[in-house]
Amino acid sequence: MKPKNKIEPWLFAAPALVIYVFIVILPILWSLTYSFTDWNGIGKLKFIGLDNYVKLFSDKTLWIAFKNNIFFMILGTVFQLLMGLVMAVLLSSISRGSNFLRVIYFIPCIVSSMAICKIFEKLLSVQPRGVLVAITDLLGFAPHAFLSEPDWALTFVTLIDGYKFCGLYMVIFYSAFMNVSKDVLESAHLDGCNWFQQLIYIKFPLIKNIFFMVLIILVNGCLKGFDVSYILTKGGPGNASELVSTYMYKTAFSMSKFGYGSTLGVFIMAESLIAVGIVQLIQKIAARKDE
Questions:
Q1: How confident is the model over 9-27, as pLDDT tens digits?
Q2: Which of 73, 103, 231, 243 is the most exposed place for a label (fewest CB within 10 A)?
Q3: Which H helix or E strand runs over 284?
Q4: What is the C-alpha to C-alpha distance for residues 243 and 268, in angstroms, rounded to an integer?
C-alpha cells in the first residue's frame, strides 16, 4: 500500500489558513505589540513596558465597563438562548407555514445594526412619542426615556442586541431538532411519551452538544458586543451602558491612545478566552456525569 500523502490536506487548508493568519493572528500580535507602547497613531512608538497593564487595575471606567459587560453577557446569553430554543421548538412542532415563519424570524439577523437601532430609537422615543410611550400613556403609566435612564439603558441595549441575533440560534436549534431520529420519537410515542416528555427527555439530551456550542458562541459574542451599544447610547448616559469594547474604541480612536486601546483589546481577548474555557469545562463535567 502506498503511504498516504500528508501534504494534500494542508494544500486544501492553505487558502483559509493564510486568510486566518492575516485577519486574526497578525492583528492579535500587533495589538500585543502596541499594548507595550505609548502611541497616538501618528508619532513614533514609545516603549513603556507594562505601564498600560498596570493602569488597567486603577482604571475605574474599565471596571464599570467590565461589570456592564458581565451583565450584558449573562442577560444577552439567557435571552438569546431561550428565545432561540422557543422559536425552534415552535417551528419544529408545526407542519404548515414553518418556512414562512423561519424567514420572518431570521430577518433581524440580516438587517443592519444601524437600521435596527434606528427602529428601536423611534419605538422608545419620548419626544416625539414612540409606540412604547404611547402604550404606557394608555395604561396610565408615566413615560420613561429608557435609553436615557441609567437604570434601564443597559437592559434595553442588551435586549435589542439579543433581538437581532435570536433568529441565528433559532436556525441552529431547529436544524438540531430536525436531525433527531424520527424512529426514536415514534418509539417514545408508542411507549406513551407525550409531546412535552419527548422534548425534555429525548430531544434536549440529544442536542446537548449543540446547546454547548451555541453557549460558547453566545458568551464569546456578548463579551465582544459593540455596535448596538455604541449606536444607541455611545455608552451613556454617563457610563451606564459602557462596554469594554466601546470604551476601547473611544480610547483608541476618539482619544488617540492606541497603546492603551490595544491593551484594552488584549483584555477583551483574555476575558473571552477565560469565559469560553469555563463553558468548555462545564461541558466536560456534564459529559463525565453522563458516562
A1: 888 889 999 999 999 899 9
A2: 103
A3: helix 258-290
A4: 10
Rounded CA separation 272/263 (Å): 14
d(Cα 152, Cα 63) in Å, to the nearest integer? 19
Average per-residue pLDDT for the chain: 88
Of 248, 269, 226, 235, which is closest to residue 153 (Cα–Cα)? 235
Q: Quote the pLDDT of residue 18.
A: 94
Rounded to whole angstroms, how far apart are CA atoms 131 and 43?
Answer: 50
Q: Which residues contact 274 (CB under 8 A, 6 or more apart)?
A: none
For 156-180, how does the pLDDT look when each residue is reduced to its tens digit (9 = 90+)?
999 999 999 999 999 999 999 888 8
- Cell numbers for 217: 458562541
Measured at the CA of 17, the angle between CA 12 and CA 18, to 5 degrees, comes to 110
- Cell 459587560: give the residue: 69
The predicted structure's pLDDT at residue 157:
94
Please report the beta strands in 163-231, taking only residues with DSSP state E, as ranges in sequence order: none
- The residues with which 37 forms a beta bridge, in sequence order, are 47
Backbone angles phi, psi at 113, to 5 degrees: -60, -35
Question: What's the pTM?
Answer: 0.89
- pLDDT > 70 in the chain, percent: 98
Q: Terminus-to-terminus CA distance in the chain, angstroms?
A: 38
